Amino acid sequence: MTDFRWTSRNDGNPPFVRIVMDLSKAVHAEAAMDDSGKNLEVILRNTSKGGTASQFDNMDKRAVDFATLSEKDGDTYLDVALSKSQKMDDIRVFALRPDSKLNKPHRLVVDIPIPGAKQTYTKPAKSVSTPAVAAPSAKTYDVSDKAKNVLKGKIICLDPGHGGTDTGAIGHLGKKDIYEKDITLSIALPLRDLLTSAGAKVVMTRSADKDVYGPWADATTELQARCDVANEAHADAFVSIHIDSFANSSIDGITAYYNGKSANDLLLAQMMHQATINSLSIPDRGVRSNDFYVNVHTAMPSVLMEVGFITNNHRVQMLTSSWAPKSMAQSLFDGLVSYFSAIE
Q: Could you name the Gene Ontology cellular component terms for this entry (predicted)?
């Protein structure tokens, strides 16, 4: 842990106290409440509190009497004495990824509601950070007879990465924040329409800006919920769409990730990758084996497509254009046609 700070926030309903812990790397955290509902403990596994102070008394007394940090057996314990009894379900504990552009490290955040407080902040009707990503059309697309023959009756699960409280990677256009979650959805929706027009049955892990499991869920719970959508639908293929990021803004390219859990996972990744490289002028970062959660825990052949880097200026301009999401969707569609043609 490199820093500890807190603030009172009025942009929630109810308002809340936010505790933020800066970290040198991602950590595993656990949280629990005692039976009285007045003592919250968050454990940061394999973490040192470093030079951070041990006690914090000057916090917002409407929610927190005081907080302490201590170390035991290589773990750091955050103990929070609450002013009034609360339920664990009302406490939010979540991680934030580092943002090199904003010089932000890994962070663990704890949000504690202020009992009885009323919201005094009115959220703008439209956030200034909302990227200008064109909404895809729900029209019927013209698809080839070959595509219809190959895809008819196939069940395909599309997973637009992130969503809701999880923005995913963040890029920038001028002073605007561009969220990965918005771009992935802008690609998945026209891909859904293409597949549906060809006679496939499409199940979406999400079709709007929302979490799949629920707001502020931990990564494993959220990712398993996405796998559950595909597994319960008995999908024939699972396609997770993501946008990559890196501290070096010159890095760019398309990568297809697979896990060799079945005979066809590699083939699906190869076909999806080749189709995007064939139709789009984006650098090629190859087909790579990886143990990404959604690839490992889906019962069917699956691929996680990183379709460019949101931290690359040229790519983020392209991905937020009016034409690129539909073109990307078309290339992914072509990859699925090639895959199902090959296995038949």
A: outer membrane-bounded periplasmic space
Q: Dig out the tokens for 1 from the structure.
A: 């842990």
pLDDT in tens, 75-132: 999 999 999 999 998 998 988 888 766 678 999 999 999 988 765 544 433 333 333 3
> E strand or H helix at 314, and its extent?
helix 313-319
Tokens 């605007």 locate to: 176
Q: Are residues 54 and 150 in the same domain?
A: no
Q: Distance (Å, rounded) from C-alpha 324 to C-alpha 24? A: 36
Does residue 181 lie in a domain region?
A: yes
pLDDT tens, residue by residue, 269-292: 999 999 999 989 899 999 999 999
Q: Are residues 84 and 185 in the same domain?
A: no
**Lookup: tokens for 220:** 């494993």
Burial of 161 (0-12, 13-18, 19+ CB in 10 A): buried
pTM of the shown model: 0.64
Both 106 and 166 in one domain: the answer is no
How many structural domains compose the chain?
2
End-to-end CA distance of the chain: 54
Give Dmax (Cα) for the chain. Answer: 70
Q: Mind listing the pLDDT tens digit for each residue in 223-270?
A: 999 999 999 999 999 999 999 999 899 999 999 999 999 999 999 999
120 in a domain, yes or no?
A: no
Q: For residue 80, is it left (φ>0), alpha (ψ between -120 and 50) or beta?
A: beta
Q: Taking 60 as the threshold, does the pLDDT of residue 134 lie above it?
A: no
| Residues facing residue 48 across a β-bridge | none
Tell me 45's DSSP state: T
Which residue type, as a one-letter code, is found at position 344? E
Tally Cβ neighbours within 10 Å of residue 278: 11
Based on the domain organization, do 93 and 194 belong to the same domain? no
- Domain span holding position 335: 145-343
Same domain, 93 and 166: no
